[in-house]
Amino acid sequence: MRGPDPLKARALIDQAYERGVRLFDTANSYAQGDSESILGNSLKNRHDVMIVTKLGKQVPLKARLLKPVKNLVRGLVKRSAQTEDVVRRARGGLLPVSFDVPVLRRQLDLSRRRLRRDCLPMVMLHSPTAEVLHAGHAVDFIEKAQNEGALEHIGVSVDDLEAAEACLSDPRIQMIQAPLHHSDQEMRAWAARAGAQGRHVVAREVFRQAVRPNLKLRPETIEHLLNTALDTPGIKTCLIGTTNPTHLDQLLQMAQVHGSSSNAIEVF
Q: Considering the entire predicted model, what is its pTM?
């Protein structure tokens, strides 16, 4: 509700594609499914892209009931700082998570429909704990769906080092998304080990500061943090979220000057 409308979002996706971006990250829960639908409509005839979607997080019933009036709320947000603040606080809450097989199966079917692909390039578990990963039933389900032709590759998006370590004990997991804060040396060491095992490691949250979290980042700070992430051994992809076309061009330019190929954008 606080991001761009669908037309502007599609224009941003087109801009990213034309600039060489080929990895697009989304999730079943993002924007109550609208993120997947926008990506599906934008990329339906482009078969050279890696679309990454994620299963496990659930949109609460209260939010689902508000979906029919989403455009109305978006208009109110643009006109009222008070309404925007209410939406920001509501969006900041943690979503419930379930890795029960019936939930994953329903979400996978919805993702395939929204993304307009019978076979999805990459499906991830969304923020599982180490216990869920060690239990194996959620990855078992995705592997079964892979064998049935519903997806090509298996991945996991983790929130902590314990879950990241659990991923390395399962050879079926090919891509791992992990937060890579500037000062997190333990996660950087993990990334190097994961990369050495042949896992495709995706760094996210690379601009989050451990100190002064409300700091407004300057361009030179952003470039330094981006380059530091790209230089980290084991990191193959840096996942950057933006809703601003100018910022997209600036970020891609920073990566190209650094000598890396920036190939990820997250659509909110």
A: 0.84
